[in-house]
Amino acid sequence: MIRRCLLFPRNLKQTSYIFNNLHLVRENPSFGLAASVVDHGCSESRLLISAEGFNSNVPIIRCFSTKFPNFVRSYCSGQNKEESGEWTEDIEYLDESGSVLFTGKGIRSVEPGIDDHVMVGGLKKPFLNASAVAKIVEIVKRWKWGPEMEIQLDRLQFVPNMIHITQALKVIGDSDASLSLFRWAKRQSWYLPNDECYITLFDKLNQSRDFDGIQSMFDEMIRDSGGNEMSSFNSYNRVIQYLAKAEKLEVSFCCFKKIQDSGAKIDTQTYNSLITLFSNKGLPYKAFEIYENMEEAGCSLDGLTYELMIPSLAKSGRLDAAFKLFQEMKEKNFRPSFTIFASLVDSMGKAGRLDTSMKVYMEMQGFGFRPSATMFVSLIESFVKAGKLETARRLWDEMKKAGFRPNYGLYTMIVESHAKSGKLEIAMSVFSDMEKAGFLPTPSTYSCLLEMHAASGQVDAAMKLYNSMTNAGLRPGLSTYTALLTLLANKKLVDVAAKILLEMKAMGYSVDVNASDVLMVYIKDGSVDLALKWLRFMSSSGIRTNNFIIRQLFESCMKSGLYESAKPLLETYVNSAAKVDLILYTSILAHLVRCQEEQSERHLMSILGATKHRGHTFMCGLFTGPEQRKQPVLSFVREFFQGIDYELEEGAARYFVNVLLNYLVLMGQINRARCVWKVAYENKLFPKAIVFDQHIAWSLDVRNLSVGAALIAVVHTLHRFRKRMLYYGVVPRRIKLVTGPTLKIVVAQMLSSVESPFEVSKVVLRAPGDSVLEWFKKPIVQQFLVNEIPSRADILMHKLNTLFPSSAPEIRSLSPPKPLVAGKSM
Predict the structure, then answer these.
(1) Do 531 and 519 meet the contact criterion of CB atoms below 8 Å apart?
(2) Backbone angles phi, psi at 228, to 5 degrees
(3) What is the per-residue pLDDT across 283-309, written as a single tens digit (0 to 9) for each?
(4) How many structural domains are present in the chain?
(5) Quick check: is 742 in a domain?
(6) Alpha helix positions (H), 491-562
(7) What angle do CA 124, 128, 133 make, to 5 degrees?
(8) PPR repeats span which residues (predicted)?
(9) Domain with 778 in it
(10) How much of the chain is in helix, strand and coil states, percent to nearest 5?
(11) What CATH number is associated with residue 801?
């Protein structure tokens, strides 16, 4: 049986092409030939062979069956039972004139989606992969997506497989079209998850920057893996790498955790991408966590891992871990890069591990790397901050020899560090080089140099720097002026200090505090004359000081005996609303007690009056008679002490009592002194002075009292002991007077004049109670203990009348001093 096939070429070249390639029509399924029967309404049945796989230059081939008008199509699958599976008929290929071009066995039909081959005569010829891929690509590119594309794919004349799909995905450029093809393939019975297929899809999605699509596809891949994690090894890693490079931190880490939970293996490149991501995001500890996971998984570290982890660990402060990796890297014969060396040198230096930093620095040079300017700066800064200036200076020299020019900040650091360490010669040398290099020193650098020269007492150098600074148009800071003024004050250069202070005032600074500080320098130094001179300068320049300094200067004048200069200071103090307290008044009274010149006593009395303190009113009233006071001495003293705030002035009141009793004893006013002591004891100013221990021991402690207060306390207390023993019959085993080493001799001399039974030991005078009782019965002792006013002499009374003119002479006893009181000791 012979079938004839007419060829209708478009031109002669096409005819020649068909004739020369008819064997391809039979043997190569890439043309995608398909046969069908078409009824054209004539007695002949025509066999139509379409060449859809050809390009635009391929002609249409039409075959006509002339002998079998009732021809029925036969499929290779054998589903048509009426026809044989074999086709042995010959086919004649005719041209337009009817001439035979070629004769050969016919090509059997195939059933789409079932047959994976074509029949060439009796031989099965499989479809080539290239042909299948080309057909799939053609359909996808034409229809893109949707039902039409899927219908065309369903009509393919062959059974695709995953290799065809994977290759087609690689050719298709559009990611949406690729996904459509992939979705169609997944619904087919022959679909199997394929790692290469997923990788191709992820590549497409990454190229289109569709990271949401990548994440969705990744989740779908996890679901489809079905426990076969190793089949998707490369695609898993590719997803994390793409997401990490896109800086999708949370998404990439989430995918990483999902892969870990699934038990899949993660490669080194993926770990490196995650480490890079976390390091760039400023999360070094998270990067180190990824590194630890990498070690736990047994994944080998490559050079890039070390390049990422060592600088990250070093910068985050985990220096031990960084240095361990550095050593491990060298052991594995990886060559450290300059970045690793630079990070270790910088981090070790800043952490104070200078020996390690220098070791890495020297090792880096052994690897042939040349230190950078940044590394030199980092090393020099580290050694300067650690105080190792010699090493810093050596690195400074190396930096200059290497051809690097120190920057402004480095010059400043070297100058200031050497200046602060006292190496002023080196500091000034570098400072000179800094100026020659064209850098204008900052006020901070000038101030540092000036202050250190001032601290070392170098006035000339400090003034030279100050003049250089002002000539350069720089404004000295407050600390600079303070240091310079302090230096000039210590050197007692009052005039120069005044000039600098006025310049400081012209700069707009408030100079009151600095002027007061200079005044305090003179006061503490004891240069009262210079202090007064400086105070006069301040007053003439309209510069004010505070009351505290005025008081300090006043007290200095009092100590130096400059009473005439002290009074105006006190008046200034009082007139500025400052209140003279009891301590200040008592200190003036103490000067009066020690004064031996009548003229000075007059000045001191004038100063006491200028205080306007209530204590002076009390003193004047104390020396007047009862007619003027309108009340007895004891009541007058009690009234004064009731006006003292003991919560605030308890210590000042004790001080006042001690000085006042000294003065009263010195003036011979024993009765008044005893009244003061009695009231002071009543107000518990000396609560532990007198102790009554029943019948065992009675004691008096006068160690914290002045000489006058101690004498009055002994006389008054022994008088109380006498009343208890004689009137009440209470006799203790012993009586002791605790005097301490200072007052022991004074009290012993006073008691020895009346033949007392007290024995003197190191710090205590003690006697048995019975002996003291017998001693109390003597008339001389009674006269001694009840003595009211044992006055000194007429000249003393005359002095008293001069100092306190309000006191009435008729109330004073002009009798000579009684032998019971040791006049010299008083």
Answers:
(1) yes
(2) -95, 70
(3) 776 777 777 777 777 776 777 777 777
(4) 1
(5) yes
(6) 494-506, 512-524, 528-540, 547-559
(7) 140
(8) 267-301, 302-336, 337-371, 372-406, 407-441, 442-476
(9) 688-805
(10) 60, 10, 30
(11) 3.30.1370.110
